[in-house]
Amino acid sequence: MSGYNFAYLDEQTKRMIRRAILKAVAIPGYQVPFGSREMPLSYGWGTGGVQVTAAVIGPDDVLKVIDQGADDTTNAVSIRRFFARTTGVATTRRTDEATLIQTRHRIPETPLREGQIVVFQVPIPEPLRWLEPHEAETRKMHALEEYGIMHVRLYEDITLHGRVATSYDYPVRVNGRYVMRPSPIPKFDNPKLDRSPALLLFGAGREKRIYAVPPYTSVRSLDFEDHPFTIEAWEQACGLCGSRESFLDEVIVDDKGGRLFVCSDTDHCERRREGAR
Amino acid sequence: MYVAVKGGERAIEEAHRLLAEARRGDPAVAEITLDQIEQQLALAVDRVMTEGSLYDRELAALAIKQARGDLLEAILLLRAYRTTLPRFGVSEPLDTAAMVIRRRVSAIFKDLPGGQILGPTFDYTHRLLDFDLGNGHEERAASREPERAEAAIEPMPRVVNLLDREGLIETEEPPDAEAPVDDLTREPLRFPASRGMRLQNLARGDEGFLLALGYSTQRGYGRNHPFAGEIRLGAVEVEVVPAELGFGIAVAAIEVTECQMVNQFKGSASAPPQFTRGYGLVFGEAERKVMVMALVDRALRGRELGEEPQSPAQDEEFVLYHSDNVEASGFVQHLKLPHYVDFQSELVLVRNLRAERGVGPRP
Amino acid sequence: MTERALLTVRGLSKRYGDRVGCLDVGFNLWPGEVLGVVGESGSGKTTVLHCLSGRLEPTSGSTEFLQRDGSVVDILRLPEVARRRLARTDWALVQQNPRDGLRMGVSAGANVGERIMAVGARHYGQIRGQALDWLSQVEIPRERIDDLPGTFSGGMQQRLQIARCLVTRPRLVFMDEPTGGLDVSVQARLLDLLRSLVADLGLSAIVVTHDLAVTRLLAHRLLVMRGGEVVESGLTDQVLDDPQHPYTQLLVSSVLQP
What we know:
Helix content of chain C: 25-40%
Strand order of the largest sheet of chain C: 6-7-8-3-9-10
Number of strands of chain C: 10
Oligomer: heterotrimer
Strand content of chain A: 15-25%
Distance between the termini of chain C: 41 Å
Radius of gyration of chain C: 18 Å
Structural class of chain A: alpha/beta
Strand content of chain C: 15-25%
Number of helices of chain A: 7
Largest interface: A-B, 69 and 50 residues
Largest sheet of chain A: 7 strands, mixed
Shape of chain A: globular
Number of strands of chain A: 12
Strand order of the largest sheet of chain A: 1-9-8-5-4-2-3
Distance between the termini of chain A: 41 Å
């Protein structure tokens, strides 16, 4: 793609984003405001993730892009093509071969390792947003560690439903200090955030915030002692590879409502099937 | 046997091809040219430049063509292109008092120095569909030599300055004239926002959204008694002072529309009453936009003028966070993206909750 | 007297240009004591309350507070973080309109539990248990714990606000016209409740009101304010039965006798 800089953004912009990333890594879970640029994709479609990836990607990286856990969903394809065109960097579907993984709404099932970077696409970064619409006030609440209101929300859920009624984008406490939204990953994936060997970066383009969880940082999902955090479980196994440990997608296979459950993580599923042969 | 869905790449390529076909339409019909768009759909071009924050008529015309006439899509194209352009400097403030006027009207005085110049306006047309416009009958109108009034050469002083000389209207001075101007396209918005940031946000904000807000102030949601002090349209010079030269040189002439609203007077125990102001400035010819920009600007100044914010137009965070149609369109339309993983989580939860109540089987 | 004052205020003043909000106000407040601050609108009593509770920044003065660990700190010079934390734990503010002091969008139980959750309580059962206890203490039926405050009467909302404030056992409570807007019979019940809570919990309180009957029932000592200044102070009964200052005499004599 001639006429454009490596990874599309000019070097000034990349430097600005990297400064924001460094600040974010230094203060785990804290939302750093940054001068988000308009990108060739719409806001809401991953511009934050793309800007973070564009700022950190280098010619030797191997890039994997997933959406809903799959490499082949249209938006993942679109983003992967964008980086292929603007960087010429090698791309892969295999989690274990990737150095840089941009993801929307899932963390891969394959355990991450040191040296990997995961970039999350974030729609709404502010965990207090639904309780307090004003930005000026939520910034203060974070600064003064006033998180009582988050547990009030959980208390109400338990009162009404007998359990916490949040199933994705489940709020967490990072490094014992900041409360953070992990992006709309299912709560099933929250345990993977805790003390991950990988560097986790979160980009919200439209809302113009970047935050981070450095490797081996504690990430605890908010809960009550007598209503501890739990993850989803299925009675079924994956209809393709037989896994009982991965997050399953429900697929409707006929118009009588017949259904099949398959691994959301397509790479993981394929690998298991290869291994079984 | 269920096979996992693949082929996203091919699907996208086919979609692009279909889009190109749809864009071209019937091949028997002549392809539209950028000149045609730029000349004959000039107001669309002007809107795309203003909300795209980039003054380039040809690029805006190209964006409109590529976007098949969807102006919000064209604005996104132009903004994305703007991201790649290097910034080599900041111009001097535009001197709109020195504008070469094409149109200038004021509602607050019957007559004024320089006169009321109607210029090209829809205002006094009768809204009757003109079937002669179809099929080249515009030729006939164009062949008649119009009595061209000479574009006013002498600068026309701003009406509002006349009020200013009497001390009747608040003066507008930036708090620190030497400080660098905020740049909304480079830094994130913070609250409370500076007036500069607010005006930039409004200038590139969606015309429809601001129209509704401006209208709401007129209907009582934060009324501030506006009068149209002056609306002027014409060409202004863009001047840059390069460091090597130390003096200003004109690098371009652009067309802008400017509006100054004269609003509810304010006074206090210590200060006698004066009228207050609202301001609007846009690229090209865009009166409606520039007027609502001034109305909303004034509504948002409520805080510094000691007015209780009671209505949506006076709520700074509400207005400035939702005025950007590129952000809004993106986020609304992102709902089309797959959300089936999160939905699956919700399904599991809801089924469990229902099962606990004895309704329906356990998942 | 070996016991130290809980709160020592000296020279508290708030000016707005030439206008005076309050001028040179000073007093001591002892543990377990209720101080009434009375006056008409514009007397400066609310200004004093706002200065002490952190809502307004005073122009001058010092306010020393004796913390739980025995150390004394000047509240007006505390950094905002520390002040906000004190406001959530060791102090409380009961607002005149209970809707201003409650979260109307969450249940009564959540309202009462919030302050203990804010300081780290993480056991749902225990939080709920404490909320139930407090509802009993303020005479709200226990079965209303899951109801929204909007479904409560004005008097019940005020009692809910009190429970919400007292759950962390603050040692100092500010009250701003606590019975304002309530029916006379409801006021009486509320005052009785406040009196027993103050006695049972050993609270100190500063009650700002224009209603002398409230001070008669609740306050041990009184400050009478007018035009921003304290014109008279002393034991409540003494001040009300034998007022010395002409303004106090006027106030006392203009109270309607039933």
